[in-house]
Amino acid sequence: MATYLYRLARFSYRRRRLVLVLWLAVLAAFGTGALTLSGQTSTSFTVPGTESQQAIDLLGERFPQAGAGGATARVVFAAPAGETLADPANRAAIEQAVAALKVAPQVGAATDPYQAGGVNPAGTVAYSQVTYTVQGMDITDASRDALSAAAEPARSAGLTVEMGGDALQPPVETSATEVLGIVIAALVLVITFGSLVAAGLPLLTAIIGIGIGISGIMIVSGFTEMASTTSILALMLGLAVAIDYALFIVSRYRHELAIGREGEEAAGRAVGTAGSAVVFAGLTVVIALAALAVVNIPLLTEMGLAAASTVVVAVLIALTLLPALLGFAGRRIIGRRGRDPETAGNGKPTAGTRWARFVTRRPAAVLAAAVLALGVIAIPALSLRLGLPDDGTAAPDTTQRKAYDLLSQGFGPGFNGPLTVVVDAPDAKGAAEEAAGAIQALPDVAAVVPPVLNQAGDTALLTVIPGSAPSSAATEDLVTAIRETDGRLSGDLSVTGQTAMNIDVSDRMGSALVPYLAVVVGLAFVLLALVFRSIVVPLKATLGFLLSVVATFGAVVAVFQWGWLAGLFGVEETAPIMSLLPVLLVGIVFGLAMDYQVFLVTRMREEYVHGARPTDAVVAGFGHGARVVTAAAIIMISVFAGFILSHESLIKSIGFALAVAILFDAFVVRMTIVPAVMTLLGRSAWWLPRWLDRILPNVDVEGEKLRHRLVEAGEPLPAAQEAAPVR
Questions:
Q1: Is there a contact between 513 and 586 (Cβ–Cβ < 8 Å)?
Q2: Which class is domain 392-503?
Q3: What domain of life does the native source organism fall in (predicted)?
Q4: Does domain 350-383+512-716 have CATH number 3.30.499.10?
Q5: Which of 260-274, 566-580, 612-626, 698-712 comes out lowest in average pLDDT?
Q6: What is the distance, to the nearest Å, from the Cα of residue 527 to the centroid of all Cα atoms in its chain?
Q7: In CATH, which superfamily holds the domain spanning 1-37+194-341?
Q8: DSSP codes, 117-162
């Protein structure tokens, strides 16, 4: 592979104008296609195979007027102190508000509190349940404005009016954090390279790659239904890996120039060695993203495949367009000082080399300290509970949280998470009455609303009010208990609604985590065995990744579920961890972690294959790669940490988790545990059974075959490399 990439890079460098024109033509073609062929994206969210989704599908066929799966809102009214909602003026104000709600855009139904039992026994709190004909992400701004406007007459009459429900959630919008991330990346690149030209190339190639990738996703949306959030992961990861890959190749190119090679040869050597690592690093990311299909949630599958395609584009650009741009930059990429970027100046070792020497002098102590530290941080992960955010986790000053609290005070916490029980039977009325009696006898049931039948009389709806909050373990147990009554009654019974859907999604994500890990880790293990021709190195890489992940889970639980350091990170309410977070975290961090693993250890293997002793190879390889990995990790940590400033607890937890995960994996696992373990293992780190050595193809990531061919061709080595033996 190294030989092929060497030739490809030299061709790109030599024919740089042609390569640049071709890539710009591709960008223009994809951009034009995105403008002319893109279609409408979907905002539907389905979880195939779950009971709640099956119930929604059944209601869509037999009881469409029920609005199952549509967004909901609850408008909560509270009487002024010393008054009740039975007072004629208060009642008139509420009825006027309900009348406005019923005719609001996209509203399917709105209940009258006085007719539907929506007034608490004390007469101080009431609510109207508003059901929309579309899902929350499809609600227009005009519909949200109409919802707010409907409450104004009641507010003017002196009532307290608050609103909750998923209908109030605004669509996800691009924030300043993306721009902030690019600015931070630019600053880190300038500091790393000391050259504006060298810093600009990774950003330029990343922007071109993202433009092609996102345009491709938009084109596909014109031919197949695609979720509106599909491009989010592609944008985030595409930018991350594109900068990483370009940064790694540019760093190696600068080194080749500094030791005396000419531009074309330096580009060939850089891509032949560092580019091989980029190919396999990209493959690990693609594996991690494509394997999201294992979870069997269409939205995650689409996001994973879209992001994987963008990563492929980033790899292709790094191998072809980047060498062409290096040809345009020439020696200006080194900067004015023109010195070897991998030394601190005057022959002094870099900080990376000094750290590697410290670790290799005390490998056992450093390894024990690092593992112990991550192990202690991981302890809270034993209490991990998964769930989806609701109004109870909103900030205390929001109308959603105020509505949630008013309902809890007036009716009990279960009113914030009603369960919809679907009864399917030829005589739905009798079966529903039987089911209502059985459910009423279960623990933690506050109330069962009388059944509502469809026109055919073969489907009935029961609304069950739990006694506990929607995100509580008691409500999860109640859903399980209701479902267990199915089979003992005269009709088929299933539970759906937002609360049940949240529980099903959490269960699906929790049960999919182990199979997903098995697929990702298994395929990546085989790939890394090919790259390093070793059994021990892939095993160590995998175990290190798992250690950083469980430590991240521990930190997330401690902050967002237990409330430790909550004030420091702006966490106003503790809650179960978002159910999508573990799988997303594993997929994203695994890809980036293997990037860092490949970047560091391939250079160690290169030094070892070229004749260095095992410990010297660790120090030399780490010294070459540490600067790049440090820069890449700082960029990613800074970008993700920016999301901690968000007011949304969901976005805040994702940003915190990703930033902490990369901090642990890059600096503790890859840059501390890896050199310590490699030192302790010595030559054993590169052990491979002979039978497996014969089976595995030699992909020559470290460029040893390339080096042999160049030596045989009579190309002189720079003075800095003449002493290195050829093995």
A1: yes
A2: alpha beta
A3: Bacteria
A4: no
A5: 698-712
A6: 23
A7: Multidrug efflux transporter AcrB transmembrane domain (1.20.1640.10)
A8: T-B-TTSSEEEEEEEESS-GGG--HHHHHHHHHHTHHHHHTT-EEE
Name the DSSP class of 404: H
Handedness of CA 136, 137, 143, 147 (dihedral sign): positive
| SS3 assignment, position 322 | helix
Quote the CA–CA distance of 107 and 174 in Å, as a whole number: 28
Angle between helices 321-329 and 230-258 (to 10 degrees): 50
Alpha-carbon distance of 608 to 251, in angstroms, equals: 20
The answer to whether 585 and 657 have CB atoms below 8 angstroms apart is yes
Q: Which residue has the higher pLDDT, 272 or 396?
A: 272
For residue 162, list its beta bridge partners: 76
Nearest to 429 by CA among 385, 459, 398: 459
What DSSP designation does 718 have? P
Q: Position of tokens 């042609």?
A: 18
CATH of region 63-168: 3.30.70
Residues 438 and 482: their CA atoms lie apart, in Å, by 9
Q: Which DSSP state fits 345?
A: B
Specify the 3-state DSSP secondary structure of 651.
Answer: helix
- In eight-state DSSP terms, residue 561 is I
- Copy the structure tokens of residue 385: 């509970």
pTM summary value: 0.77
Angle value at C-alpha 29, between 24 and 33, nearest 5 degrees: 145
SS3 letters across 465-509 = EECCCCCCHHHHHHHHHHHHCCCCCCCEEEEECHHHHHHHHHHHH
Kindly state the tokens that stand for 517.
Answer: 């890990």
pLDDT above 70 for 178: no
Q: pLDDT digit string (tens) for 95-126?
A: 899 899 888 888 887 888 888 778 888 889 99
User: What letter does residue 66 receive in the DSSP assignment?
Assistant: G
Q: Give the number of other CB atoms < 10 A from CB of residue 158.
A: 12
The total of other beta-carbon atoms located within 10 Å of residue 242's CB is 28
Q: Which helix (H) or strand (E) element contains residue 81?
A: none
- Strand-pairing partners, residue 227, are 42
Q: How far apart are CA 251 and CA 243, in angstroms?
A: 12
Let me know: does 401 contact 394? Beta carbons within 8 Å: yes
Q: Residue 580's closest CA among 498, 470, 660, 502? A: 502
CA atoms of 378 and 554, how far apart (whole Å): 4
| Residue 407, CA distances (Å) to 81, 167, 414, 469 in order | 17, 17, 9, 11
Residue range(s) occupied by CATH 3.30.70.100 in the chain: 392-503
The tokens of 569 are what? 């990170």
Q: Which residue from 11, 44, 73 is spatially nearest to 230, judged by alpha carbons?
A: 44
Q: Give the residue carrying structure tokens 């695609």.
A: 226
- The pLDDT score that the predictor gives to residue 222 is 80
The C-alpha atoms of residue 628 and residue 636 are separated, in whole angstroms, by 12
Provide φ and ψ at 465, rounded to 5°: -100, 115
Strand, coil or helix: 75: strand
Crossing angle of helices 581-609 and 614-641, in 10° steps, is 150
- Looking at residue 61, its pLDDT comes to 81
Neighbours of 89 (CB within 10 A): 11
Written as one string, the DSSP assignment of 668-691 is IIIIIIHHHHHHHHGGGGG---HH
Question: Which residues, 6 or more positions from 668, have their beta carbon under 8 angstroms from its beta carbon?
Answer: 370, 373, 374, 548
Q: Which residues are CB-contacts of 663 (< 8 A; sequence separation ≥ 6)? A: 633, 637
**From-to residues of CATH 1.20.1640.10 in the chain:** 1-37+194-341, 350-383+512-716
Question: d(Cα 432, Cα 302) in Å, to the nearest integer?
Answer: 39
The residues with which 417 forms a beta bridge, in sequence order, are none
Span of 282-291, 345-354, 380-389, 554-563 with lowest mean pLDDT: 345-354
